[in-house]
Specification:
The complex is a heterodimer of chains A (531) and B (298). By secondary structure, chain A is α/β, with parallel strands linked by helices. Chain A has two domains: 227 residues, 2-enoyl-CoA Hydratase, Chain A, domain 1; 213 residues, LarA, N-terminal domain (Rossmann fold). In chain A, helix 19 links the parallel strand 17 and strand 18. The longest helix of chain A has 16 residues. Chain A is globular, with a radius of gyration of 22 Å. Chain B has one domain: Glycerol-3-phosphate (1)-acyltransferase. Chain B is of the alpha/beta class and 298 residues long. In chain B, 39% of the residues lie in helices and 11% in strands. The chains are: A alpha/beta (531), B alpha/beta (298).
């Protein structure tokens, strides 16, 4: 893939073809009014020619204040390897996953040196535990078969208080409570996949292997309302908090060797790859595929469409790998992420439209319930900006998603109660946090399900709502969801619309006649650099 | 009664020496026809629609390590330990498609090409090319190198023949020589369990595992591709290849981490087995076999 074209902003005129909108397990074309803008993402960057050699080179030539990994390893040491969970990348990438490649390379070096005491930890924080298939997909069969049967491939348990240790407290009062095995190791190697600019750095350890006691320091409404945006770590209160805690951990805890990888945006395999093409470049085959797929999906039962989409394994490939001291590594990683994602956009608009896809970080192999729709739209897509939001203050955000009143009872039990008990009373994040969070976070049943089943932690539903707190405040609640279940949409305090045309008319009541409109043509993921 | 000339051939005059016919069997068998499109199409049908179901019926194979060749560009040389005639079909049907339909198998000229009929069957069904296995033959090596240069992948069993007792024989240097000569990567592959289906000397196969139940029968494990180091000669590279296949085998019998540690400590069990009495070699072979845990079909 040479000559990767950058992202760009298209001015819609009468000759512009209808534009693709994702809508959960489906997609459709919409004609935008002349004068609107469409932001297209950059094309996928060329992947590394030989990722395995690049990984080994990175391990032996670290950045920042770090010795090569081979020099940090010695016989008789305690080595812990923590890695990101299934929430990234999206959709899950084809095997071999970046983490498998990196973990195998780390273990190769450890074997050469003669390290025996090695434990792997799936760093999922308050996310659900990973299934065997998910673990196998992430670390590969070889690593799984070698470590899991001996109990050496573990999953972080943020409620196992016997295996959590308080490393210290920052000057701002943030408590750093970490997985004991990781904290008492001679070396902690963290392996990540940096899908977006929000990921990585100290956030990896300070969310992945900590507890509710630590996470509430930054996963709260105040912090998230002051993260502008989440995808711009320099202006994100959440990241500032993670960095303070991470520095404390680096000073008081074990030596941390961070390995970060980035992927390109080659998001969809054939025949879905038309979803990442610019509409005027669709071939006759793409057009036939689109018509056949969109019509079939309209008629297909939800379970069939869900199975098809969640079976997608993305052809994303590694574009960079860097290793060493956390902050130096992350600075390089962020450069690579920006190189893939940034699109220059001039000026804000009255209305921004976005088509939400079928998958977000919290519904891999699961159902995208209404809370996750909110989180994906207002938490992630809205925050995919640097500088200032695409939509002007007091503007309107229009999302396209069926927003079904469906929940995965195993994965998201507390979400169901949040939706049924909390939202009917209030949608104000501040009030929700004050009145309900503690009860959900300490509920023994949710804790039991988190620890023994495959449930997200009881407080995780709140974090979904907080994730959108900045957007809710900024938009003053002016959010319209096109094609969604009207009851579910209203429950969240948003307005439902049947069609985009209806939604645009409804938006005019807020922003006035002849509004400026921008469509965010995502996925593939991009980051609007708004000036 | 033979028809008279000119309907039949003329009688060869006595005293006139017969012109020797160019040899057409053994290493001299010309397999070029088997790489033309009609034969390739037929072979693709045979491999995908006949050989594969038969292999799955007989061995219910479990194929692992394909992720290691996911990014590998064709052509490549696949080297594999050799227990059974089943190995060839098993390996061919386990190869990723981009290799499978453009692969040739280095086959013993003195076994598979002893007659034109036998050669034609071998060339058509598995894409066999004749290789002289008992001594160095320029014709064989030139053919293999030319085919690699033309984009054909090569399957080689460097032991030169099937194992007589279940342990591997010494690897010969042909694959390593070709890799050094052409610069193409070599993928070590370890096959286990095929001896229980059809070992050397058996006339009929015995199915193992549950038919079409993946993981209950024979196993194929692909290792990480290797390239010759700069300046490395084929003899040294051949030693490295044998060690790589042994490491993949160790990984299969134990687990990846244990195998990596043993490889780092240079204590990977040899493919050739212990140099002790035959009964102890046999004993050691059974001890290390994971297949013993798999139920036998039916």
């Amino acid at each position: 893939m040479t000559g990767t074209r950058p992202g760009f902003v298209l001015e819609v005129d009468r000759s512009t073809p209808p534009v693709l909108f994702h809508a959960g397990e489906g997609f459709h074309l919409e004609r935008l009014p002349a004068g609107s803008r469409v932001i297209y993402p950059p094309e996928p960057l060329a992947p590394l020619d030989d990722p395995d050699s690049a990984i080994r080179h990175a391990l032996l030539n670290p950045v920042g204040d770090s010795e090569p990994l081979s020099a940090l390893l010695r016989p008789g040491m305690r080595l812990t390897i923590a890695f990101d969970n299934q929430a990234v990348p999206l959709p899950p990438m084809r095997r071999p996953d970046n983490r498998q490649r990196v973990i195998e390379a780390v273990l190769d070096l450890a074997a050469e040196v003669g390290v025996d005491d090695v434990v792997l930890i799936a760093a999922h924080g308050l996310h659900r535990r990973m299934t065997e298939n998910e673990l196998r997909h992430v670390v590969g069969d070889r690593v799984y078969d070698a470590f899991a049967p001996q109990g050496l491939l573990t999953q972080h348990d943020a409620e196992d208080h016997d295996n959590l240790v308080l490393v210290g407290t920052t000057a701002e009062g943030e408590e750093v409570e970490v997985n004991t095995r990781a904290a008492t190791s001679d070396l902690l190697v963290y392996v990540n996949v940096n899908l977006v600019a929000m990921d990585g750095g100290h956030k990896s350890t300070m969310t992945g292997i900590t507890s509710y006691r630590s996470l509430r320091s930054h996963h709260n409404v105040h912090t998230l309302q002051h993260s502008r945006s989440l995808m711009d770590p320099g202006r994100s209160a959440l990241h500032h908090s993670c960095w303070r805690m991470g520095r404390l951990f680096a000073a008081e805890g074990p030596r941390v060797f961070q390995i970060e990888t980035t992927v390109n945006t080659d998001t969809f395999p054939k025949p879905f790859n038309l979803l990442q093409k610019r509409e005027w470049e669709w071939t006759p085959r793409d057009r036939v595929s689109f018509m056949a797929a969109s019509k079939s999906l309209e008629r297909a039962p939800f379970s069939v469409a869900h199975k098809i989409f969640h079976g997608i394994k993305s052809p994303q490939k590694m574009t960079s790998v860097q290793a060493g001291e956390v902050e130096a590594v992350h600075a390089l990683t962020t450069e690579h992420v920006h190189r893939q994602h940034l699109v220059a956009v001039s000026g804000q608009t009255d209305i921004v439209t976005m088509g939400l896809p079928f998958v977000g970080p919290y519904n891999v192999n699961s159902v995208m319930n209404p809370l996750l729709v909110m989180c994906l739209g207002l938490g992630y897509f809205f925050n995919l900006y640097r500088g200032k939001p695409l939509v002007r203050p007091g503007g309107v955000l229009i999302l396209s998603h069926p927003t079904p009143w469906k929940f995965h009872p195993v994965h998201h039990p507390s979400y169901i109660d949040f939706f049924e008990q909390v939202l009917p009373e209030t949608t104000d994040p501040v009030e929700i946090e004050k009145k309900f969070e503690e009860d959900f976070a300490t509920d023994p049943w949710y804790i039991h399900l988190y620890r023994t089943s495959y449930a997200y932690h009881g407080v995780h539903a709140f974090y979904m709502w907080y994730w959108g707190a900045h957007a809710l405040q900024y938009l003053n609640g002016n959010v319209i969801i096109v094609g969604g279940d009207a009851r579910a949409v209203r429950r969240m305090g948003f307005k439902p619309a049947s069609t985009l045309r209806d939604a645009l008319e409804m938006a005019e009541d807020v922003v006035g006649r002849d509004p400026s409109i921008t469509h965010f043509h995502c996925p593939p993921i991009m980051l609007a650099d708004v000036t | 009664m033979r028809p008279a000339f000119p309907v039949g051939p003329a009688t060869w005059p006595k005293g006139v020496e017969r012109k020797p016919k160019p040899p057409t069997t053994g290493v001299h068998y010309d397999t070029a026809w088997s790489r033309r499109y009609p034969a390739r199409l037929a072979r693709a049908l045979i491999v995908d629609d006949v050989l594969r179901p038969v292999i799955h019926l007989l061995g219910s194979p479990d194929v692992t390590g394909l992720d290691r060749v996911a990014d590998l560009e064709a052509p490549a040389i696949f080297v594999c330990n050799h227990h059974s005639h089943m190995d060839t079909g098993l390996l061919l049907t386990s190869l990723p498609e981009r290799f499978r339909h453009r692969a040739v198998v280095a086959a013993a000229a003195d076994y598979f090409f002893t007659s034109k009929t036998r050669g034609a069957i071998s060339a058509l069904t598995i894409g066999a090319i004749p290789i002289e296995r008992h001594r160095v033959n320029r014709r064989s090596s030139d053919l293999a190198a030319d085919l690699l240069g033309q984009g054909w992948s090569l399957v080689v069993f460097p032991e030169g023949g099937r194992s007589p007792d279940g342990w591997a024989q010494e690897f010969r240097g042909g694959a390593a020589y070709l890799a050094v000569r052409t610069g193409r990567p070599v993928v070590p592959v370890y096959v286990e369990g095929t001896r229980r289906v059809l070992k050397k000397g058996d006339r009929f196969p015995t199915p193992v595992g549950r038919p079409f139940a993946r993981g209950s029968g024979v196993q194929v494990t692909f290792g990480r591709p290797l390239w010759p180091d700069p300046g490395e000669d084929s003899r040294r590279f051949a030693v490295r290849l044998e060690a790589a296949v042994a490491e993949v085998g160790d990984e299969r019998r134990t687990d990846w981490w244990a195998a990596r540690r043993r490889a780092a400590a240079s204590t990977t069990p040899s493919l050739a087995g212990p140099g002790t009495a035959p009964w102890r070699r046999s004993w050691a072979l059974e001890e290390g076999s994971r297949n013993d845990r798999a139920p036998t079909w039916p």
